Amino acid sequence: MQTWNEMKELQPLAAQMLMNSFKKNRISHAYLFQGSRGTGKKDMAALFAKAIFCPNREGAEPCQNCRECKRIDSGNHPDLHWVEPDGQSIKKEQILHLQKEFTYTGLESNRKVYIVVDADKMTTNASNRLLKFLEEPSKQTTAMLLTESGQTMLDTIRSRCQLLAFQPLNPARVEKRLVEEGVSQSNAKLLAALTNNLSEALEMNEDEWFANVRKLVIQLIEVLQNKPNEGLLFINHQWMPHFKERTQMQRGLDVLMLWFQDVINDYLDRDDAMVFITEKERVSQAAMKWSRQSAAHCLSKILEAKRKINQNVHPNLVMEQLTLQLQR
């Protein structure tokens, strides 16, 4: 369940603009929700639809308990239509079906709402059909187009929509939401430092592969501290088998960077900025091996390794070189 107060915490400007639509009784016939994945577009669209249909609405706030609200939650409201990609794209036939549905009188009222998820994935034919739909708006119809990349959509579609820009979530807000979703504080800290995408963070939290990334980074640091001569052995027998793809390698290096940032945070007594909060003692021990300057040097070398991975340099060579550089 989402309320406007919750949505204002995530997306203050977009939420306020939609709330104002009810205060001024000026609901647009079409909106374009534009923002990266995980920024709350679908939740906002569902809440806006509830506010449109709820008979017990107070201001912009739907009651959440009536038949209308509950059917929207369950995906069974007859006058709310969701359109999502069929495979890799939204096809012309899906828009034609939507148009056919809208020729019928609303089953509950004359109101109808449709939400197009990943609207940038419409085929050219589907986009042209939707454009014709938008060119002849009904006062009783509201469209919400959700996209991560509005620039790839037809300018003629964009111009007929009220644009709402969804901003990336800040790390503190992502961390708070993750904890509310049942993620441990230590994992929430790490995930919020890696991504501002709430959906991606929750997926990573459930991924056993990612859980082992944290362990491998800590093990690598321990090897570099206590058994530096075994560093290359660890990379080839423990690290590389886990990071089989370049995207996985990048993720591992991101976590390694956060470790050395924590070493610098330890020097600066910035406990509130620490990511590895359950390994604080280990971070302090690492600070005895790596000075603040050498930790900063390590960060630059990790960034250099990330660039080489992107440039298709062989990952084994990149990691072996990085390991030798981190030992110095």
From TrEMBL:
Keywords of this entry: Nucleotidyltransferase, Transferase
Keyword NAD among record annotations: no
Q: Which Pfam families has this protein been placed in? A: DNA_pol3_delta2
- Name the GO terms of the biological process aspect: DNA-templated DNA replication
Q: What is its EC number?
A: 2.7.7.7
Say which domain of life the source belongs to. Bacteria
Q: Gene3D superfamilies attached here?
A: P-loop containing nucleotide triphosphate hydrolases
Provide the top EC class.
transferase
Matching entries from InterPro entries are given as: DNA_pol_HolB, DNA_Rep/Repair_Clamp_Loader, P-loop_NTPase
Q: Name one GO molecular function term.
A: 3'-5' exonuclease activity
Record-linked NCBIfam families: holB, PRK08058.1
Under which name does UniProt file this protein?
A: DNA polymerase III subunit delta
Gene that produces this protein: holB
